[in-house]
Amino acid sequence: MALEPFKESTPLTMGVELELQLVSFSDYDLTASSPDLLHLLAQKPFPGHVTPEITESMIEINSDVHTRHSELLAQLHEVRDTLVDAAERLNIGICGGGTHPFQKWVDRRIFEKPRFKEVSSLYGYLAKQFTVFGQHVHIGTGNGDNALFLLHSLSRYLPHFIALSASSPFVQGGDTLFNSARLNSVFAFPMSGRAPFTLSWDDFANGYFAKMEHTGVIKSMKDFYWDLRPKPEYGTIELRVCDTPLTVERAAALASYLQALCAYLLDRKEEAPAEDDYLVYNYNRFQACRFGLDGTIVHPKTYESLSLREDILTTLRRMDPYAEKLGGGAALNHLMQVTHMGSDAQYLRDQFAASGSVEGIVDAAVQRFRGRR
Amino acid sequence: MPDFLVISADLAWPLAVLLAWLAGEFIHRWTRLPRISVYGLVGFLCAQAFPELFATESGNPVIVMANVAFGLILFELGYRVNLNWLRVNPWVAISGLAETFATFAVVYLIASAWGVPSMTALLLASLAMSTSPAGVLRVVNEARSSGQVTERVLHLVALNCVLAVLTFKVIVGFWVFETSGSLTQAISLSAIELVSSALLGAVCGMLVPAVLRHLGNLAREGTLAFALVVVILVAITHATDLSPVLATLAFGLTARHRRVAFTRTQRNFGAIGELLAILLFVFAVSTLSWDNVVNGGMLAFVLLLARFVVKTAGVAAFSQLSGIPWRKGLATGMALAPMSVFVVLLLEQTKNSGVVLVDELAAVAAMTVFMEVLGPIITQRALIWARETSKEV
After folding, report:
1. Which of residues 309-368 of A touch B (CB under 8 A)?
2. Which of B79, B323, B387 sits opposite A89 (nearest CB)?
3. CB contact, 8 Å: A71 with chain B?
4. Which parts pass through the membrane (chain B) (predicted)?
5. ipTM of this predicted complex?
6. Which of A107, A112, A356 sits opposite B144 (nearest CB)?
7. Is A5 contained in some domain?
8. Which CATH number do you get for residue A65?
9. Is the entire prediction scored with pTM above 0.95?
10. What residues contact B77, with CB distance under 8 A and at least 6 apart?
11. In a domain, B291, yes or no
């Protein structure tokens, strides 16, 4: 079956997906409660969309399509409050964070849905290890060529989003010394990493995709776990490298930053993307995961070493006029604060030091998601 | 030449525990039935085959160890109970109160109609209110279950235990009054015992986290410290005729709510907890005689059936109101089936105050034996039916 045509969309519209953790208040471990929570939520209208994820300890929420930061944030607030109220009735805590700090993957249960069962039978324990939590941001691109242009142009800015959203320093009870350990779990999948380099949607659909489909390795775009991937059925590109932040405010800010960056890139004032940009891609990605805002990246065109924090600050300032036009000024201010105050990963480490336990981290994350800390 | 009988008596308990463990492992692997059901069966058969070898006098180390094992389980249960949930979703607590008191009423009415004397019927009814934390928690941990049925069963078990102990002690107070003649002495003794036990546990629940916090390394010291204090609590309550049930449960509850978020206590308290649990389940039915089981068998069967129906219906009636589907409500009620270990230990502790009830309550002996084997199986099936267990069960 050929790849469906790229749907025409309004450029620079945005939507957010957040994968969230379901935590038992009995012991702060993940709890296999998504069927229970989804049952309860189904009894009333939900201010967005909520769907199950691969294991029963996670859910995913989606916003509607928005053009302005304030509208997106208002909806995410409403979604969060509805979720927290329902979850409390079931003794469940809800929180962000890219990983649960001490859950054991072996305890997870795969959600009863054919696609999840298929993934589980193909990938074995990797499916349960995929109990990690990410934020996906969709940006409308107008057409397929624009989508691929943006996808490859953004590869240079990918470390920004990793470092700003990083919230997964702990895995299986220990500090990994990474700021985002979540992406290491994603990297284990054979269809992960970067998309192949082409700037033409026709070439992508009729060349690369058709060949891959012919090999039998993939059946649809869903089988690719790329950091950035085109989403033809929505007419968007989807950024998938962010950890789920601890607050919806940060989630909305990251989406608006991506929206402003896309507006800037579509002005085509930068040198066009090239295959060689990917020479430093994995290294920069690693630096952002490992050291977060303190990482050092290499510019793909000039090969100059840059402090990631400085590069983010410079870019945020350059995005100001675009953000102002799109109504995202407050979002950039929020991210400016993050570069000064530290990421969620730093916050979680501070909580570990203060409470002395990994349960203390989860408790803090649950409170922070509610907006009470 | 050493006396063969003395050696046999010394070896009886360790061998019974070993036999129970082996049988539990084999039968669990073969049938997937809960191990603890097998432990109970082995204990009952051993005690019937060699009654003189398994006779336990008050103060026997086996009873002390069984009490410690039960204390550890109660602590773990208390540690997992979130009182705030009962405030946020009061329907959970209301369903618990309804099924507990409905069970009391129905069992009392049936026993009275059967011709059981009023005081005995009241005691039977109060014992039937309870659900055994040992049976439920062991099955939950063995099945690695999680979800609404699991959460609710744990909270309802704690509620059942507290209400059953309170009711039982008040009725025993009246029993004492009937024999001693002093009403105030009987009531005040019960009341003082209950309040002191809960207070003792609560104080430990505040002190231990504070000390642990001071020590720093919560992850490593937590389990050991909690286990040690449970042992001490059991010893104190044993020496002072207080209630180890209330004390250890209150200890777990307070420790949890005082901790901010302490490290997760090792499930089942690790290998030592496992060992003590086998002893507990073997011991629980070894105190019962076959004659009592036969005498009380018919009444026990009727009462157990009534208890099962009332508890299941009582919880299910509130399921929609409390936010879960009927199916999960029914499963929660069914999972409350176990009651044996709790009942046996409560009766053992009552012996200390000179009230020997097991012989009076032949039906209790039969109920205990049935439910020691059947109770955990029903809980396990309810969790499987609710799709809350890991696939390995």
Report:
1. 355-360, 362-363
2. B323
3. no
4. 6-24, 36-55, 61-79, 153-177, 189-211, 218-236, 269-290, 296-318, 330-349, 361-379
5. 0.85
6. A107
7. no
8. 3.30.590.20
9. no
10. B133, B137, B154, B157, B158, B249, B252
11. yes
